[in-house]
Amino acid sequence: PLDIQKRRRAPYVAAVCPCPAPRRAPLRRVSPSRRLAGFFAQLEAGCPALEDLFLHQCGVHDDEISSHTLKVLTFDSVFFYMPMDTVEFTLLNKTSISLPSVTSLTISTPEGFTPILKDTASVVTASVSVSVTMSSFRFRFDANDLGQYLQSLSGITNLEFNYQGSKLTIENHLQWCPEFLNVVNLTLGQWCLDSNFYALIVFLQNSPRLQKLTLKLEKSNMRISRRIIGELTEISFTCEHLNTVEVICSENDPQVITVQDFFVSSGMTSVQFHIKHWSPYANDLPAFIRSI
């Protein structure tokens, strides 16, 4: 694979693709002074056969990102910069990502604005996070934005979704979660486990073919987990194909029993529970190192 490392004095576009042959390109730690502006258009022109692109700790300035060849696209700790009106405090436009051929998508943003996803019919597996900071709320990120983002992923088979940032309250019974008719593997975080299991129930109600649910609990009890909260008029759900619930947690985490009790009380007595413990080191490493 083509291994691309951004160096402070090396022009990144020249280093990206010296020939059209590479099919995989990892790009890591782009210097803040050389953020990725116009990168994707030049990448597609210079690497017409590229199928696997991995970006780690980069800042993306492109308004539109598209590729007709990429099959695997990973944004790991990537910040999307979006132009804004500093007087009205509104976004002029959002970054859009067109994915007509991508089958595997990973988007992890440490903070900032969430891009718009387009042409996602080919995506089978997605691992995405929505990071909402207080500055994001100044630009009116709300449940409608969340719903539109999830809607673009509603046709996939394997979904990992993580919510980070300020507490998001769903009002007036807003339908923010689409129906995931094809999802068989679903991974969620501790953010969905409030006292009423609100967000978890919403996802279960909208995943009729779900077979395996994975819940990743916080590694530290000192960390404040963000939540999506609201009220439900109907708390029952039917997941007749659900046979496995995997909980990844710290040792002796008391929430494991709470999760088990939730499913038993919901009538899911035949579900098998598998408990795994966090590694003390591996999961704090960047994704490209964990995959080695």
UniProtKB/TrEMBL annotation:
This is Os10g0127900 protein. InterPro entries: F-box_SCFL_complex_component (IPR053197), LRR_dom_sf (IPR032675). It comes from the Eukaryota. It comes from Oryza sativa subsp. japonica (Rice). The lineage of its organism: Eukaryota, Viridiplantae, Streptophyta, Embryophyta, Tracheophyta. Signal peptide: none annotated.
